[in-house]
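In response to reviewer comment 3 from the previous cycle, which asked for concrete evidence that the modeling workflow produces usable outputs, we include below a single protein chain processed end to end. The sequence was submitted unchanged, and the resulting structure tokens are shown without manual editing.
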Amino acid sequence: MNFTLLITVLVTAITLVVAAYVVAKLIGPRSYAKVKGEPYESGIPTRGSSWLPISVGFYLFAILFVRCGNGVSVSMGSGSEGVRRDGSA
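The workflow returned the following structure tokens.
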């Protein structure tokens, strides 16, 4: 089989990715200040650690909420499927 097209596409893709990376490194900012790494909370300086432990139950509830919320919205529809343009059902 002739894989010339496949090889050409792969080489082109790799070349474009590497070129974009090199250009970003060349023209991107090179300085890093300590202030840039600090969290910003509405202009109020943070005190202490910003990492707080969160219960796994919160994530499970969020996943169930998203999953069930999508199921309800799909099963109920947007509410306009059974109405014609003239307003009759």
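The mean pLDDT is 77. We consider this sufficient to address the reviewer's concern, and the full set will be provided in the supplementary archive.
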